[in-house]
Amino acid sequence: xxxxxxxxxxxxxxxxxxxxxxxxxxxxEVHDSYVKQTYRNRTNIAAANGKLSLNIPxxxxxxxxxxxxxxxxIDHSQSWKSNHLKSIKSAYYSSPYFEYYQDExxxxxxxxxxxxxxxxxxxxxxxxxxxxxxxxxRNTSTYSNDSKAKQLITAKAKQxxxxxxxIQVFQEKHGFLQPxxxxxxxxxxGPAAGSYLKSQHSKI
Length: 204
Prior knowledge:
By secondary structure, this protein is an alpha/beta fold. The chain has one domain. The protein has helices spanning 14-22, 80-92, 98-110, 116-130, 147-153, 171-174, 182-189, 193-199, and strands spanning 3-6, 25-28, 42-47, 50-55, 136-139. Helix 2 packs antiparallel against helix 3. The termini are close together.
């Protein structure tokens, strides 16, 4: 695989991270339209009651019009930031590596941009840095209409990839859950996450 085009998402899921890990270069699609039911404003974690979706509220623009993703603003009037942090901490405080990354995660949430795209790029870069994934990254100059990028960003897309299980919190209660945010991989595997991602290259 050469260059991978992705729509920046709210903490990319593990399957997206496998694609990113395998790619030699990465391009952020920044000329697309905002689409609902995608990972642009949501991410999934493994909570005590099963898979939990964390959703970022946005300021809605005129209906019936195609709205550029890069113009979508986060609705900061809602207390989503503190709620998401509490949910992540509640879900992963007992995981092997949460305390190791907790300070950096809380620091990330201290400065959230106005635009959803900017925040998602920041959240994606945080994950890549913590996972030691170093790629040459660029922004697209025009809309690419890349089919793989659209599949990876679609929350309701049918999952055709069956990942090898890794130890998750609450696994005895709910079994191995996927797709989940890369935070799940980071907090459960820590420094071994990169080796896991590499081991899954043949799945994609």
